[in-house]
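INFO batch 0412 | record 1 of 1 | parsing
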Amino acid sequence: MNYLFAPESIIERQSILEQLTVTLEPDHGLEMYSDFDSFSARLRLFNNPQIIIMLGVCKSDIENLLSLSELIRDAAIIILHSEDSEATIKLAIRLRPKFIGSLDTYVKEIIPIVKKLIQNQKARAQKIFSVKELII
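INFO prediction complete | emitting tokens
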């Protein structure tokens, strides 16, 4: 499952969400959250996320996600932050994201990145399935 966290102000930017939904929805699903409490509650459930996309996050959102780092250690994380402060970027780097950038400048660039991550997931799933067949 793939997750998108975006504050309410970002959800108003429909074009971003429509592009991501078209990219992810057919085979992989996309669960969207606009408040961190419901997002973190979902992360605490058993199945681990594969891709986490964080749009328009601020320093406090990143700090909150760092507190859940054990739950997301295997996820591919994409962060588009709304604050260009050095402290925010340093915190975001601690999450070891696949991509980090500013919401104002990099929105269009994340679609190909998400597509590539999905291709990698499919390839990894095929390898795991092949290994399971050999074991059986």
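INFO post-check: The first strand starts at residue 2 and ends at 5.
INFO record closed
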